Amino acid sequence: MTEALYRRAKARAAERGQTVSALVEDAVRVALDSRPEESGTDRPLPVFGGSGVMPGVELTDNAALRELMDGGTGIDALR
Fold first, then answer.
1. pLDDT per residue over 2-43, tens digit each?
2. Rounded to the nearest 5°, which phi and psi values hold at 14?
3. How many helices (H) and strands (E) does the chain have?
4. Cα(17)–Cα(6) distance, rounded to whole angstroms?
5. Widest CA span of the chain, in angstroms?
6. Is 22 helix (H, G, I), strand (E, B) or coil?
7. Gyration radius from the chain CA atoms
8. Where are the domains of the chain?
């Protein structure tokens, strides 16, 4: 733990009336108990209007999709 981080932890522990060890234990407990997939913070993806996939686009062909997205420009030219 860096000196600055330790000072912040010590100050927060003092505010809460607990030891630095107890503060660290609480932080570890929260980190281990939290699961992003269960947090309920999932936001719906935006949906845009349109008529679907453009003619000639095959979503299962990765190479063709890359070619279409790159506009025919090779990967080296994009760097």
1. 899 999 999 999 999 999 999 999 999 988 987 766 556 677
2. -65, -40
3. 4, 0
4. 16
5. 66
6. helix
7. 25
8. 3-34
